[in-house]
Amino acid sequence: MLCAISGEPAEEPVISKISGNVFEKRLIEKWIEENGKDPITGADLTLDDLLPVKTARVVRPRPPTLTSIPALLSTFQNEWDAMALESFNLREQLQRTREELSTALYQNDAAVRVIARLTRERDEARSALSKVSVSNNGNAAAPDAGADSMAIDSDALPSEVVQLVEGTQAMLSKSRKKRPIPEGTASSADISSYAVRKTVSGPVEDMSAFAHMDGHVAIGGQNGQVVVYSPAQSKLEYTFLLQEPVTASAWINAKIVLGTASGSVKIFVDQREVASFSEHSGPATGVAVHPSLELLASVSSDKSFVFYDLKENRRVARVFTDSALTTCAFHPDGHLFAAGTASGEIKVFMTATGEQATSFSLGAPVHAIVFSENGFWFAAAGKGENIVAIFDIRKQGDAANVKTFETGGAVESLAWDYSQQFLAIGGSTGVMVQHYAKSSKSWSEILRSDFPAKGLDWSVNATQLVVADQNGRVAILSTQE
To answer: What contacts 344, CB < 8 A, 6 or more positions away?
Structure first.
């Protein structure tokens, strides 16, 4: 008969009246003295509940002294008994710990499921709330000017603006399908020989916005200074001062669009302000111009983007999202609008409806987005990151990431040329140009310049690369003086 505690044959077996288990007498007596319970069932157990089992056994001699071999064997036996009791205790504790861990894991899994469900319901509620238009139609008295109120606007574009967006898309997408490389476009060999040929600088201490169009460069600074250069003529054309930091800029023909830290969006012609919008409750972090040149978009850290009608200088739509927005860009056809978020996600919306079409994960707060003229790809970079990722808007998940470049320094700006071949990447360590050969479907680096680029853009036919550094110094990279 085996002892239920030690698992060894019992020399003096006893049986429990309570559980019917067999034990070694000396082990169970020690257990009862310490615990007073049955070690198997946990029921109360006393010495009177033990019945001796009569078996044939060899009577061991009584050890005379501790210095004799029999006495040592007895000591070893006592040590073994203690070890057997401790081992049994450990097995019991291990079993209880396993049961407690199993219960804790079950409770944790249940909690995670509840949190996921509540998060999903919260996001659905936010999405539904963002589509509610709050307005006063005259059926109730207007609230007092000093009363607390919350306006949730999520508007659809007016029908005439929708027609503009759809018409622009139809015209541009049709011409893009078989568009050849424009005649006179610089070759990869030309660009590989680009170097800094001209520089011009002005009173901008900390550049925070860059825009280039037709040889004119507009730069805004954290001190509110706005400077317009003509790099080709190596001169500063004019400058003016805003009362707040400039956070974003863009050109619309001869007009300069400026986003500010207070959330306002202002439009200037020369040094004269011709329009101003104050729709954001946080800094305007990005502005983008629709290909039709009649629609303007701005994004903000207040989690919303706004569309403006440039003909009538009015807001025509606002859409709220679930994350602070950091930058934006229109698709070359204008039917899609991409917005980068502080959470590292790039959300792509339908311009006409404001509905989200798809999204891509960058893994870091989005700092720059630029679409390729092929209409399928866009490049994006994270704030403070040295990696540029190219995504295909036709795909999802990991398959959407077409290519990744490591630049060696933090990326500040991106620019794709009109021929869809050259991607310029500007950063703290300089300028890099990647060339895509459509015939071989391969990428190659054709230029590296050590001129630090806070902002950059291509000239017509990529014959020049216009670059600006943190201090507002503008340079032209080209093959000729």
So the answer is: 361, 362, 363, 364, 365, 366, 382
pLDDT at 152: 42
> Looking up tokens 């502005």, which residue turns up?
287
Instruction: State the chain's mean pLDDT as an integer.
Output: 86
In this structure, what are the phi and psi dihedrals at residue 218, rounded to the nearest 5 degrees? -110, 130
Distance CA 194, CA 222 (A): 31
Read off the DSSP letter of residue 477. E
CATH topology of domain 159-478: Methylamine Dehydrogenase; Chain H (2.130.10)
Identify whether the C-beta of residue 269 lies closer than 8 Å to the C-beta of residue 147: no
pLDDT band at 251 (very low <50, low <70, confident <90, very high): very high
Q: Which residues contact 60 (CB under 8 A, 6 or more apart)?
A: none
Instruction: Specify the DSSP class assigned to residue 438.
Output: T
pLDDT, tens digit, for every residue of 185-196? 999 999 999 998
Q: What is the pLDDT of residue 39?
A: 87
> H-helix or E-strand containing 277?
strand 272-277
Give the tokens for residue 93. Answer: 């504790």
